[in-house]
Amino acid sequence: MSKSTNAYTSAITLSINGETITDTVEDRVSLADYLRHQRHLTGTHLGCEHGVCGACTVLVDGCSARSCLMLAAQADGRDVRTVESLAVDGALHPLQQAFWDHHGLQCGFCTSGILMTLVELLRENPDPSEAEVRMALTGNLCRCTGYQNIVAAALDAAAHLRAEGVAR
């Protein structure tokens, strides 16, 4: 539980991408703004700031969450994963590699939110159908693509993850 340090701030402790962090946050600051401005994790993008576009999607305790709608203080005691957690030691996550291979992005603004949504999907359903991938993506808006390459990338990444036998 976050502890108030004064009338407008709270002390929080959370895990971000595997690192335990203790910090002070203004009570009114969204998790998205906290990640971007205090933690300098700029992969989380702010689009609509109403939870509609999905660009700000992160994983909180393994579940996708709109970080623009969540206060940073609400993340106290939680595990937060951002797109920066996907690549390990310079090696792209299979989803990132599949997006590269299948041209699954254009401008890239929505990509981090889509990737985090798909990480959750593939962890819960390692062998999704095309329809299931499309359904998972209904909360992510991409203005540049027709989603076909994104879906192809997700299905390819799922096959790679199954072949590796690893849930990431």
How would you describe this structure to a colleague?
The longest helix is centred in the last third of the chain and has 17 residues. The model has no long low-confidence stretch (mean pLDDT 94). Strands 1, 2, 3, 4, 5 and 6 form a 6-stranded mixed beta sheet that branches. This protein is of the alpha+beta class and 168 residues long. Helices cover 32% and strands 18% of the residues.
Unreliable residue runs:
none
Discrete helix count? 5
Q: Separation of termini?
A: 28 Å
Proportion of beta-strand residues: 15-25%
Q: What is the helix/strand order?
A: EEEHEEEHHHH
Beta-strand segment tally: 6
- Binned, the helix content reads 25-40%
Sheet of most strands: 6 strands, mixed
Q: Whole-number radius of gyration? A: 16 Å
Which of globular, elongated, flat, extended, rod-shaped describes the shape? globular
Which structural class fits the helix and strand makeup? alpha+beta
Q: What's the overall average pLDDT, rounded?
A: 94
Write the layout of secondary structure elements.
Elements: E1 3-6, E2 9-16, E3 19-26, H1 31-38, E4 57-60, E5 63-66, E6 79-81, H2 94-101, H3 111-124, H4 130-136, H5 148-164
Parallel strand pairs: 2-6
Antiparallel strand pairs: 1-2, 2-3, 4-5, 4-6
Helix pairs in contact: 2-5
Compose a concise summary of this entry:
The protein is an alpha+beta fold and 168 residues long. 32% of the residues lie in helices and 18% in strands.
